[in-house]
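User: Here's a structure from my thesis project, written as structure tokens. My advisor, Dr. K., wants to see whether a designed sequence matches the one we expressed. Can you design one independently, without my sequence as a hint?
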């Protein structure tokens, strides 16, 4: 069943992309701005960076490690 829907889904996606591109390039100014914003929204997003560990990381014993405070 899924194999039967793959080709029509591809054609539909290409048709929608074509309509948005033509509107962005040749449509009225207001519609063109909206289409360009939509194109930016549809681009593939990059993977987020790996989260950094917190400054106060817990050790195996449960105690927190702290950086030394500078003496003024």
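Assistant: Designed independently from the structure alone:
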């Amino acid at each position: 069943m899924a194999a039967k829907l793959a080709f029509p889904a591809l054609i539909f996606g290409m048709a929608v992309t074509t309509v948005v591109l033509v509107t962005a390039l040749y449509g009225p100014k207001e519609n063109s701005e909206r289409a360009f914003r939509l194109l930016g929204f549809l681009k593939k997003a990059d993977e987020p960076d790996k989260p950094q560990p917190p400054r106060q990381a817990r050790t195996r014993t449960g105690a927190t490690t702290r950086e030394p405070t500078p003496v003024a």
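When you compare it with your expressed construct, this may help: The chain has a mean pLDDT of 77.
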